[in-house]
């Protein structure tokens, strides 16, 4: 079933991210908190170090991501404030010719090669449509959502063994199981109106019938409300903060997201694209 037109995408989605960190060593920071290209958006990004404004350079990331670089930041107290109002839906994600191959390959956190035999035994012979139903249902049934339980270095294999994790772990395992059954899959960081407790959220996208469809076994927020931030093979390519050349200690984070005029109902029987 193709993804329907998006009449139930909220008219307006308001998002924010507030990040506090201590820059211990002079270093460069890459922020991935801005709403991805393609949305109609009003936004403000304010970055300070010890209360003084820092210069910010925006560069284009892969698959519509917008990365903001803070170059050669000296030690001090770093504060990032981002606010945006997103108006209506964005166009459906572009499918590049190389996507099919790129997102079938194993990656650092989606080790589809290591769980391939298990995945094919568990789901082998299922059609693509069946895989999109069965795999997220299986992950939701087998993996417990436990905030704070997983480590930043954990991937799909660790999640499968532990039987618990957070949204990024659900997304990694879902993506690895799909890839192992020859369905291209990738990870997307999003703002998620309706999420409780509120935070950055991670979901999977599967390439089906020439379109990227969102898959979220956590079921924690309606898919129509999600707002794309960054897209990649796994969390290594979608992190909200990357530090190059020194140490930075994260000391505080607040994320907010609301949908107006109301939060939509998500019919899980429908295939949906991130809009």
Helix fraction by DSSP (H/I, runs of at least 4) = 10-25%
Question: How many strand elements?
Answer: 15
Q: Oligomeric form of this entry?
A: single chain
Molecular shape: globular
Helices and strands, in order, run as EEEEEEEHHHEHEHEEEEEE
Low-confidence stretches: 1-5
- Sheet/helix structural class: alpha+beta
**From the 3D coordinates, which CATH architecture of the largest domain would you assign?**
Roll
Mean pLDDT: 95
Fold and architecture overview:
- The chain has helices at residues 99-102, 116-123, 128-142, 156-162, 167-180; strands spanning 12-23, 27-31, 40-49, 52-53, 57-60, 66-73, 76-87, 144-145, 164-165, 185-191, 201-208, 211-215, 227-232, 241-244, 248-260.
- It has 275 residues and is an alpha+beta fold.
- The chain has a five-stranded antiparallel sheet, with no helix packed on it.
- β11 and β12 form a beta hairpin.
- The two termini are 17 Å apart.
- Residues 1-5 have low confidence and may be disordered.
């Amino acid at each position: 079933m193709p993804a329907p037109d998006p009449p139930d995408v909220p008219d307006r989605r308001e998002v924010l991210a507030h990040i506090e960190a201590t820059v211990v060593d002079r270093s460069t920071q890459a922020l991935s908190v801005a709403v991805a290209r393609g949305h109609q958006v009003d936004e403000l990004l304010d970055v300070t170090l010890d209360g003084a404004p820092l210069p910010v350079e925006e560069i284009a990331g892969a698959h519509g991501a917008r990365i903001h670089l803070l170059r050669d930041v000296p030690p001090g107290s770093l504060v990032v404030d981002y606010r945006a109002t997103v108006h209506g839906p964005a166009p459906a994600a572009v499918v590049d010719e190389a996507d099919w191959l790129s997102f079938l390959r194993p990656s650092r956190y989606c080790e589809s090669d290591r769980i391939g035999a298990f995945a094919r035994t568990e789901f082998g012979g299922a059609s693509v449509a069946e895989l999109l139903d069965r795999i997220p249902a299986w992950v939701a049934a087998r993996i417990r959502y436990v905030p704070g339980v997983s480590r930043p270095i954990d991937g799909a294999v660790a999640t499968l063994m532990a039987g618990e994790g957070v949204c990024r772990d659900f997304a990694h395992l879902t993506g690895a199981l799909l890839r192992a059954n020859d369905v291209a899959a990738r990870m997307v960081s999003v703002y998620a109106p309706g999420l409780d407790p509120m935070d950055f959220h991670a979901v999977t996208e599967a390439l089906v019938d020439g379109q990227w469809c969102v898959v979220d076994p956590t079921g924690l927020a309606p898919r129509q409300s999600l707002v794309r931030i960054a897209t990649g093979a796994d969390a290594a390519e979608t992190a909200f903060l990357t530090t190059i050349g020194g140490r930075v200690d994260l000391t505080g984070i607040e994320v907010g997201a609301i949908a107006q005029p109301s939060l939509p109902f998500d019919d899980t029987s429908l295939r949906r694209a991130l809009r």
